[in-house]
Design brief:
- This protein is of the alpha/beta class and about 325 residues long.
- It is about 40% helix and about 10% strand.
- It has one domain: NADP-dependent oxidoreductase domain (TIM Barrel).
- The two termini are about 25 Å apart.
Length: about 325
């Protein structure tokens, strides 16, 4: 059975250009996250997504420390090789980064391993062959790849009898690029699980922030979203109205939308209420009319939330 929601750990840990302190304005470690992690397990949310790029391995270390008190096979761990952060002196840079991740996580295998961006597909994709054959990963995926890039990855892997299992891309009401490009439909038709990240646009669609209550001004997300909240008023108001009808909150509406679109949302959970919110979002049944309302309001907002790391995806 495929997981319906993943717990994202991008904002866990401090360090590097993509650390939680820089991107989110957070400073979260084991002590702050233990109760959240335990609550996620208690709510049967056992899929966790991380990467070495998240705080230069600190996110992985935190996840490993939190997971060590649980039976490994009961958890699903997703991790990534990030082109641009590799050791070029290694015989197989992907295997080298994977081995470092395994050590930080305190495990001997990864359930899902991804190439994190589409930089130089011809160079990096072949390295996945040895990674898969090593038995250290169970499934493989690509992140921030567009439709043609996904097809090319499959062409490279096919002669080795290796199948691409998943795609992980930025996907939200404000950024439905994978619908427009045909990638989401292609994934469905080819048994490729689609993981959607930034479903809440780093909190901009959570209902917590707006033009009157902006994000931390010195954070990366504050610099991205605070200037566009004025264009999002109608969408945020509509999300609140629909949330009230379903007796939930706006964040759960954004998640329910992504689930109904056939994706597996990755949610950056850092607080206890967010755990129960994620669990409850699985049971929200949005009508076709509500889906259309949301998509129309998002289109009318006319904002671009594409990240600089995304390439063409």
């Amino acid at each position: 059975m495929k997981n319906k929601i993943a717990i994202g750990t991008w904002s866990w840990g401090v360090g590097g250009a993509a650390g939680g302190n820089v991107v989110f304005g957070n400073n979260l470690g084991v002590n702050e996250l233990k109760s959240v992690f335990d609550a996620a397990i208690d709510n049967d949310l056992k899929l966790f997504d991380t990467a070495y790029a998240y705080a230069n391995g600190q996110s992985e270390k935190i996840l490993g420390l939190l997971a060590k008190n649980y039976i490994r096979k009961d958890l699903t761990i997703s991790d990534k090789f990030t082109p641009g952060m590799q050791n070029d002196n290694a015989e197989n840079p992907i295997m080298d980064m994977l081995n470092g991740s395994l050590e930080r996580l305190g495990t001997d295998y990864i359930d899902m391993y991804w190439i994190h961006n589409a930089a130089d597909i011809e160079r990096w994709t072949p390295y996945l062959v040895d990674v898969v054959k090593s038995g250290k990963v169970k499934r493989i995926g690509v992140s921030n790849h567009d439709l043609e890039q996904v097809k090319r990855v499959q062409e490279i892997l096919a002669p080795h009898g290796i199948k691409l299992d998943a795609v992980q891309n930025h996907f939200s009401l404000l950024y439905p690029s994978s619908i427009d490009s045909g990638l989401l439909e292609y994934s469905k038709n080819n048994d490729i699980e689609f993981f959607s990240y930034m479903v809440l646009e780093q909190g901009a669609l959570s209902g917590k922030y707006n033009i009157d209550n902006p994000m931390p001004a010195d954070s990366t997300r504050g610099k991205t979203y605070n200037p566009i909240f004025s264009k999002m008023d109608n969408l945020l108001d509509l999300m609140k109205q629909i949330a009230d009808v379903h007796q939930v909150n706006p964040a759960q509406i954004a998640v329910a939308w992504a689930i109904k679109k056939g994706t597996t949302p990755i949610l950056g959970v850092t607080k206890l209420p967010q755990v129960s919110d994620a669990k409850l979002a699985l049971n929200i049944q949005l009508s076709d009319f509500e889906m259309k309302q949301l998509e129309t309001a998002a289109l009318e907002a006319n904002v671009n939330t594409k990240g600089g790391w995304e390439g063409k995806a």
